[in-house]
Amino acid sequence: MRSFNELLQSPRALKALVAGGSVFSLLLIGLLAAPSMVRGKVERAARERGLEAQVESVRLGWGKVWLRGVRVTSPGDDFEARVDAVGVGAWSGAVQASGGSVQGKGDPAPLLRKLRGKAASSAASDGEGGRELSVDGLFVRWERDGARVEAFGARASRRSGGELSLGADLVHLSDSKRRVDARGVLVGTAVRDGHRQIVRLETTAIELVLSQEVPVVPPPAASPAAPRGPPEVERDGSERAARLRELRAVLLPLLRDGLAQGANLALEGVSARVERAGETLSFGPSRLTLLRDKETLRASLSPSATEAGVTPLALNVTLPLSPGPVHVVAKGGPVSFSSLGVRNGQMGLKDVRQATLAVDGVADLSEDFETAELDGKLSVHGLLLQRRELSPQVVGPWSFDASLKGRARLDGSEMTVTSSEAHFGEVRAELSGQVVTAPGKRHVEGRLRVPLSGCQSMLEAMPNGLLPLVGGLKLNGSFGIDLQVRYDMSAPQDARVVLSVQNECKVREVPAALSPHRFERAFLREVKGPDGSPMSIESGPGTPSWVSIDDMSRHLESAVLICEDSRFHAHAGFDFQALENALKDDLKQGRFARGASTLSMQLAKNLYLGKEKTLGRKLQEALLTLLLEQQLDKRRILELYLNVVELGPGLYGVGDAAQYYFAAPARSLTLGQSLYLASLLPNPTYSRFGPDGKLNAGWLNYLHRLMHIAHKIKRVDDAELQAALEETIAFRVPGAAAVSASTIPSEAAPVPPPPELDDAATGP
């Protein structure tokens, strides 16, 4: 082996050694300088795009450069990107990134233009010539205009051919009214005709949550003197329409340019949940498919759960990608509510497996996305509900068939029903008309008609639980109704209500528990105590507080008829003329200002029913009113009414009320005292006496107006009227332990207008 000295003496060997040393030196210098060079190149590239970049460390690997702790910000923008590790191929230029976060606020478009830089105008940058890219494990968060987007486990990959895939374990989108959670998201894109387009879209689960606020309706004004229109609902239809147009303007170009021809997208596990006033209604999971066919996008939504031998209920939408109408078809069933994703307990629904739904309808949305033409049929069978506004009990099964043909504005400001029908067994109801609810423009015009039907058929059409008390009644005869309403906010004084009722119902069988004759002796009933809690009291002939009608002041009948039911002796329990007038007044004033309950209806409620405000109670009240009127004479009805009616906190019947307010028996009540008691009936929990025991001036004036009405209908003569006008109406309680009038709450209640009376209607 040659010695080292020999090598030095050989020219060729010396040259080789020098050359090798130079290469080694250059490599050593390159390795030492490379991190700074790479860091500088990254920073320069960022500055060229208006960005700032920082790199914690650079490490050279076999054929790859690794950057760790990369931070990118945009001066003047709320944006920051942090990447744990970035690997760049030394020869291929392929980029591999993992870990980190991207967060920002505002409009992302300017930032995206910065990131793309000069490459934005180059087709090669986004097409066939684009470098390979792989990103994994990112957290992305972006906020704009109160909305937030978050992506967990975000990833992206781009192949050399330009195919780009985006994905995430979870994508969360939310604002104040809605939330979307999508899991297993995968979006595949490719460059077609110079544009990057979606060719694939998948999800394993996606949930939409909508939170709807209940409109706040302001309370009625304290004074009813000046009629006013309905309160404005807290919404702006024009703003909603503008949002729809903006959505259309953004959505159509995105779909047209962003979806590749033949793209077939499948979203699995699509579900929705609507939350309103503390209640929830859910749908899904369903399968949503989208197919682009030339200039049309076809979407189909159908439940994931299928039932053997049943036509699935599907929603199909045909959306043109150029201006044009949208066609929607809903068809299928009957399917169970449970297969649609509805759950027991939601919206009061019970046993959703047994309830079925069938739909066959179409909707055509106008080119401008402002209106929709509707035409469809709906069938519901076996529906069970427990809703406090219906009944304390479970109501059902409901079964009905309905149809609708009409037109609606998508902003909710207008609905026109050309024709609609609903069939409940043998009973049919028809509805048509128009409702306009745009701010500053309120218009209602419609007709509700129930053709003449058998009374017993109508009773049997009611579901179980709705009329628990009167289910044993048997009826003969027929019943029909025709209601026409017209109201325009611009001319409330011209409100028109026409009510036509044909009531020939007769009671032919009465269960013993409902017989009015049981009130001919003492009976127990549940009432509201002075503190508002329920209590049981005894009433009826023979009880201490009972007063025979023969022992009552004759003025009591006059007072009650004037204040509550002027046509008591003329009607058969229902004053349809008063109901028509009440509806008209309510429309004019834009609120529930006047009712139309007769004495018989109030008595039915007081004797048989509770105080709950439910549909079932009102319907039972009507049937029990029919019963009372057909089995008792008017004098007996009036006697019962005056003995059970509430006239103050814990005060029931005119006997106790006369003693409490005036320290007098019912037989000696004056016209003024009788009118005072009658004036309490709409709101008996408040006294109109001041702390000094005197009647306040406003209420005294109101009673004087009632006295003139009593004189006009010849209930009192001239002398009696004059004596009544001169009478001092004062609060008196005998005994040392007398309770002051101030113990009954008083309110500055407005003085109501005097009742509108038909002079001939009061009878003898």
Summarize the structure in short:
The protein is of the alpha+beta class and 764 residues long. Helices cover 25% and strands 37% of the residues.
> Could you say which overall geometry the principal axes of the C-alpha atoms support?
elongated
**What name goes with the CATH superfamily of the domain at 515-743?**
Biosynthetic peptidoglycan transglycosylase-like
Number of helices: 15
**In whole angstroms, how far apart are the ends?**
148 Å
User: Low-confidence stretches at least 5 residues in length (pLDDT < 50)?
Assistant: 1-5, 7-11, 13-32, 119-129, 214-236, 734-751, 757-764
Structural class label: alpha+beta
What Rg do the Cα atoms give?
A: 40 Å
Output the CATH class name of the domain at 515-743.
Answer: Mainly Alpha
| CATH architecture descriptor name of the domain at 515-743 | Orthogonal Bundle
| Tally of DSSP β-strands | 30
The overall pLDDT, averaged over residues, is 82
Any idea of the CATH topology of the domain at 515-743?
Penicillin binding protein transpeptidase fold
Strand content: 35-45%
Indicate the multimeric state: single chain
Summarize the amount of helix as a percent range. 25-40%
Largest sheet: 24 strands, mixed
